[in-house]
Amino acid sequence: MSSANNQYVHDAWYVAGWSSEFTHSLLPLMILEQALVGYRCADGTVAILEDRCPHRQLPLSKGQLHNDNIQCGYHGMTFNGQGQCVRIPGQDNIPSSAYVRTYPVHEKNNIVFIWMGEPDKADTNAIFHLPQFDSDQWHAHQGDALHLKAHYMNVAENLVDPAHVSFVHPTTLGNAASEDIEVHVDVDSDVLLAWRWIRDAPPVGFFQKFGGFDANVDRWHYYYLHLPCTAVIDFGSADVSAQLQESERDKGVRIFALHFLTPVNEHYTIDRWMHLRNAAVGDEQASEQMDAMFRIAFNEDKEILEAIDEAERAVQTRKPIRLAIDKGPIVYRRRIQSLIDGERPEVELHA
Amino acid sequence: MSSANNQYVHDAWYVAGWSSEFTHSLLPLMILEQALVGYRCADGTVAILEDRCPHRQLPLSKGQLHNDNIQCGYHGMTFNGQGQCVRIPGQDNIPSSAYVRTYPVHEKNNIVFIWMGEPDKADTNAIFHLPQFDSDQWHAHQGDALHLKAHYMNVAENLVDPAHVSFVHPTTLGNAASEDIEVHVDVDSDVLLAWRWIRDAPPVGFFQKFGGFDANVDRWHYYYLHLPCTAVIDFGSADVSAQLQESERDKGVRIFALHFLTPVNEHYTIDRWMHLRNAAVGDEQASEQMDAMFRIAFNEDKEILEAIDEAERAVQTRKPIRLAIDKGPIVYRRRIQSLIDGERPEVELHA
Amino acid sequence: MSSANNQYVHDAWYVAGWSSEFTHSLLPLMILEQALVGYRCADGTVAILEDRCPHRQLPLSKGQLHNDNIQCGYHGMTFNGQGQCVRIPGQDNIPSSAYVRTYPVHEKNNIVFIWMGEPDKADTNAIFHLPQFDSDQWHAHQGDALHLKAHYMNVAENLVDPAHVSFVHPTTLGNAASEDIEVHVDVDSDVLLAWRWIRDAPPVGFFQKFGGFDANVDRWHYYYLHLPCTAVIDFGSADVSAQLQESERDKGVRIFALHFLTPVNEHYTIDRWMHLRNAAVGDEQASEQMDAMFRIAFNEDKEILEAIDEAERAVQTRKPIRLAIDKGPIVYRRRIQSLIDGERPEVELHA
Fold first, then answer.
1. What are phi and psi of A24, to 5 degrees?
2. Which of B56, B71, B88 sits opposite C308 (nearest CB)?
3. CA-wise closest residue to A326 among A153, A194, A168
4. pLDDT at residue A351 greater than cutoff 50
5. Do A167 and C74 touch (CB under 8 A)?
6. Residue in B35, B56, B39, B22 with CA at minimum distance from that of residue B101
7. Cβ C321–B62 below 8 Å, yes or no?
8. Facing residue for B168 by CB, picked from A73, A77, A95
9. CA nearest to A312 within chain C
10. pLDDT over 70, % of chain B
């Protein structure tokens, strides 16, 4: 199997969009190099279909929605939300080849998830969840869809890599105090984890603005990477006087930054990010203030990751070197490769 | 023969431009992936040459016209309208290799035709003609050159396909009344024909504005496709009371929309369109009103055809299905392929 | 050696920039398809390094300069001007693979030269020099960096080709009087030379403006091409009454236009041009007036050369013909090929 497609894990739930992105109109999407069209049906559910008429290949998203059916914009072939053709103008019989592929969809926590693999393997229990979504002690807020011209694995690496924060985000999420602090890694369970605590150090820009910290703090960064493409960054700060233990992070100002990566193609990834916090619950102005800070920080990542994507396209004359901080990223790539290999048909492994 | 060029019929007359496009100045053209330069000579004829100096390959269109000769803009090599080199500055002898290819050109009905195949096969009697060009009962008017990022075969298919009108042009050339009307096809003669009549139905937008019809009409669409790249769309409307027979179309308001397709490359086609009509003869305001309506309609085609061109570049996982309405397009492709095969040198067929 | 890189001579000094372009900040460069980063150190010397961190390949030019060291913008790996890694944040040992390549650099006549070949072959005595740089009878002035989307060999050809001047620069550097004047060529020494004298002819636009000539002049063009990529164009004018001999050019108004070509990739070349003159010494207004005239002329070359680059990408059906005026260019290409062949490793020549 040498197609470009074998760089993706297919048997997985990906984020197709925030719930608010899906209305009763045709929304073209591109996920794992597959052209899709989504819309919300009258019963409130979301349907996502292959975005290509099987007749002349016009994207169905160029057509029209008639009730819950899509009518192709070229010759009027019409498909229902299950992908079945229900009308061919000018002809009575509908051949069995007149269908489009559909994808399992599940909506949860105001997020629309799509299963890109074999439909009968789709298990909604496997969809990402955080208990804090259900807690009124926590405030959840959806941010933006950040478009990066970068391979999803490079973006994901960045999300299991606390060490970059000191250098890429010196005015927002990191500062010089963390430059030489050791990164701990736990790669034994399903979710990869890299973390570190910076004790008794100046607060980073984010918490100067948001938590109002000005004296030294204890602060932490926990990077959880759920394979293939979801990251939770648990970070926060607390007064040094509180002498917070690792397990007591809820006593500080604690934030979860969530990143849902949707690979578009091998050089394009959408990172839908949102955040949850245990402070300023219900305060929408605080949400917007945080959005603004995250936008600055994530655009710093974008600049780095897009420059790397371009550099990787050049002729390679040396093998990249690996550092101590790379354990998380290395294991991530190994696991992804293993998942991809596991999806190959038996016959091809033997070929 | 595996070059990209074997997707074109070469032994054919193509439209290089309206007569008004050719003046005593250098006009670069690209037809069947060949760079050409055209200009009008002192005697009024049009010359079209290969647009490449045989010395350093500068396009001759970057040079200057001196009387009826082109002087290259780099070192002054000069060619006459027959492609012969008549001067090499700084050198007396002119080698036999100092020439550029020229193409047979013929001007007719204010249209400049070019023969792209072997020159000795060029027969001006084979150039497209309509008797109505010579009739004072008819008014001819040249429209625009519509540039489409689409393969010419997909554009041509659209011009032997009455069924798309109801869905692509619902406010101009078609409406819902025609959606399920059967399409007739006659593919036995040299010119492919697809047609249908819609009887006793609301007039389409075009004839509401142009013919002033508001009550139900009988209307027709005849799509004639002259291979490889010229289409005549004969369409019109008449009062239901007139009970028009198929052969009596001249008694209604009848329009011919002509499309001259010029393939530029495999993803780019120029569609020069014009129209003739048996009403409002001599009324230039009516011509402009019709231009405006056609521009809306043909841009609807452009959007569809460019989206298909892009979709066809993606990896294909399914064979497109064919419908009853596809008979014209299917025969068109088969005929084109047969013409292309007929142009292959004997020796290559045996290879 | 079949990489795209074998179209360049590597064992050569190229111009990386004017001295004024290098300050204490990171300047990304692309030379012979290699990404480089340059900066001026505290001691005034210029360092040029490979612009790629060996860790995650981020261009180092995206990082920061700390004293004379570059800190990578992703994880803070830090390299000195000799390319050695001096710090890896969060880790004590520095592996031997933690380095970036550096390039020999030499600054002379306010120009920064870089050696792109094997470092131990770099000989600063081989760097281009003109005695007039050291003379107070001459005024030197640096012009622009002209960016051309063209192969460097085509640009260089143009600089050993006096014949193009009459046709490409009819209002500035040439005029009709020179069209049929024979070009002399001397290709026996290391520096290729093509030249011609035009006696008793109207002055060209340049010398009407700069020398104030209005009556007929004797004028000359000497094109010296130093391999691989430096050209000196010695041109000037004198009153016909002076009856200047070829060796007496200093008695006329004499100008050297210097072109330092830096190949960026096979379709992109930077031409840094400057000029020296034996008139209006110390007159900066004259320098600017000359800059303005050169800009017009060199943009005329740019238009021609970029059109040729595009034409050469098309499918070639004919072999270009060669003219008497092509001797200089032909020998230039042969010499370049010979230099490139000489750089191939022995083992590959035998393969």
1. -80, 55
2. B56
3. A194
4. no
5. yes
6. B35
7. no
8. A73
9. C57
10. 97
Q: Does pLDDT of C176 surpass 90?
A: no
Q: Are strands B69-71 and B78-79 parallel, antiparallel or unpaired?
A: antiparallel
Neighbouring chains of A at 3+ CB pairs under 8 Å are B, C
Give me the domains of chain B, ranges plus CATH numbers.
9-124 (2.102.10.10), 134-339 (3.90.380.10)
Q: In sequence order, which ranges of A163-283 are alpha helices (DSSP H)?
A: 165-168, 205-209
Give the nearest partner residue to A307 out of C5, C62, C89, using CB atoms.
Answer: C62
Q: What is the pLDDT of residue A180?
A: 86
**High-pLDDT (> 70) share of chain A, %:** 97
Please, are residues B286 and B211 in contact by the beta-carbon 8 Å criterion?
Answer: no
- What average pLDDT does the segment B201-208 reach? 90
Rg of chain B over CA atoms, in angstroms? Answer: 23
pLDDT digits (tens, 9 = 90+) for A285-311: 999 999 999 999 999 999 999 999 999
- Average pLDDT of the segment spanning B49-58: 97
The tokens describing B262, both together, are 């010029």
Residue B110: count of CB within 10 angstroms of its CB = 12
Q: Do C90 and A307 touch (CB under 8 A)?
A: no
Nearest to C107 by CA among C120, C124, C119, C123: C124
Q: How far is C42 from chain B (nearest CA, A)?
A: 48
Answer yes or no: do B55 and C307 touch at CB < 8 A: no
pLDDT, tens only, C254-311: 999 999 999 999 999 999 999 999 999 999 999 999 999 999 999 999 999 999 999 9
The mean per-residue pLDDT over the stretch A198-224 comes to 91
The DSSP output letter for C102 is B
Q: How far apart are CA A339 and CA A224, in angstroms?
A: 18
Contact A167 C58 (CB under 8 A): no
Strand order in the sheet with B64-66: B64-66, B69-71, B78-79, B85-87
Which of A57, A69, A92 best probes binding to B when mutated, by most B CB atoms within 10 angstroms? A57
Flag the least confident range among A106-110, A158-162, B179-183: B179-183
pLDDT digits (tens, 9 = 90+) for C38-60: 999 999 999 999 999 999 999 99
Please check whether residue A145 is in contact with residue A269, taking contact to mean a CB–CB distance below 8 angstroms: no
Chain C residues touching A318 at Cβ < 8 A: 54
| Tokens of residue B121, six digits | 């096969």
**CB contact at 8 A, C62 and A303:** yes
Please give the pLDDT value at position C5.
57
d(CA C12, CA A321): 30
> Between C71, C74, C77, which is nearest A304 by CB?
C74
Please indicate if any CB of chain C lies within 8 Å of the CB of B89. Answer: yes
What is the pTM for the complete model shown?
0.93
Q: Phi and psi dihedrals of B62, rounded to 5?
A: -85, -5
Whether pLDDT at C177 is above 90: no
Q: Flag whether pLDDT at C244 surpasses 90.
A: yes
Given a cut of 80, whether residue B5 has pLDDT beyond it is no
Cβ neighbours around C92 below 10 Å, total: 7
- C55 closest CB neighbour out of A307, A312, A321: A321
Alpha-carbon distance of A305 to A325, in angstroms, equals 17
Q: Any bridge partners for residue A112, and if so which?
A: A17, A107
Task: Decide if B78 touches C, using CB distance below 8 A.
Answer: no
Torsion sign (Cα): B326, B328, B329, B331: positive
Partner C, chain A 124-163, Cβ-Cβ below 8 Å: 163
Span C84-120, pLDDT tens digits? 999 999 899 999 999 999 999 999 999 999 999 999 9
DSSP symbols for C146-157: EEESS-HHHHHH
Kindly list the residues from chain B whose CB atom is less than 8 angstroms away from the CB atom of residue C308. 56-58, 74
CB contact under 8 A, A89 and B179: yes
Hey, are the CB atoms on A311 and C57 less than 8 Å from each other?
A: yes
